[in-house]
């Protein structure tokens, strides 16, 4: 559990730091490290999904306050994404390839849901191109981060005998 909290805090602050250096119009490197953190930390909550959802909600609330100023939108989006991640973990085991795949699917899910919410409230016009661009601009950097973070957390899990779902 402590490792999961450390991963979420580091990912949140690292996303804030990286977003200061990367242009919002970047084609490859938009960070979503907090979503990656949700993918990485799920196995550490074993069968205690309620605490996982609490962490996701708190992370979404902080994300709203720090990055978007929307107050509850990302709280619900992070909860929905956490539920999606939990369902994916039933189908896939944890290894480097599956973590990369789950990261891609979680980012696509988060970006799609947030895009459709913004279209419904009239903030954005609907465009398949805009949705596709929103998803693809986030993939490369976040998959690299997920694989590196998985390697680090897996190493510490084995070294300090931290139990997780494999």
SSE diagram, text form:
Blueprint: H1 2-21, H2 33-41, H3 49-68, H4 73-91, H5 96-120, H6 128-159
Helix pairs in contact: 1-2, 1-3, 2-5, 2-6, 3-4, 4-5, 5-6
Task: Count the beta strands.
Answer: 0
Number of helices: 6
List low-pLDDT spans: none
Largest sheet: none
Average pLDDT number = 92
The helical percent reads: over 70%
Radius of gyration: 15 Å
The class by helix and strand makeup works out as mainly alpha
Based on Cα principal axes, name the global outline.
Answer: globular
Strand content: under 5%
Helix-strand topology string: HHHHHH
Q: What is the CA-CA span between the terminal residues? A: 15 Å
Task: Give a written overview of the molecule.
This protein has 166 residues and is mostly helical. The radius of gyration is 15 Å and the shape is globular. The protein starts with a helix and ends in a 7-residue tail after the last helix.
Main attributes of the structure:
single chain; mainly alpha; 166 residues; 6 helices
Give a short overview.
This protein is mainly α.
